[in-house]
Amino acid sequence: MDLLEENLAGYDRGSCMTYAKDLKGWLMLYFGTLDNNTHPANTYQLSNALLKAGKYHELQAGVDQGHTGLNFARMMEFFTERLILNPKK
After folding, report:
1. Residues 64, 6: Cα–Cα separation, whole Å
2. Domain membership flag for residue 35
3. SS3 sequence, 28-55?
4. Which domain holds residue 61?
5. Residue pair 11/4 in contact by the 8 Å Cβ criterion
6. pTM of the complete model
7. How far apart are CA 85 and CA 64, in angstroms?
8. pLDDT tens, per residue, the chain with 89 residues
């Protein structure tokens, strides 16, 4: 992809912030505070872009967790509540 300064359009096309306004349905974001793969600031940026676009979502933080520390019971509850019992059209 080259450096940001040399390929700004490519970085914009590859950024989920660019498409936040187009998302539909229920969304849960998760980040682990000890994630060494995706920095929590990236999740905050996406959350902010979603809020600015009027896309409300659930944000879950895994305190002292890494990239895969999601609370699976909560994830399944979210899937059941939001995607099966009450899907957005």
Report:
1. 36
2. yes
3. EEEEECCCCCCCHHHHHHHHHHHHHCCC
4. 8-84
5. yes
6. 0.79
7. 32
8. 898 899 999 988 988 889 999 988 889 999 989 988 888 899 999 999 999 999 989 999 988 988 888 888 999 999 999 888 988 75
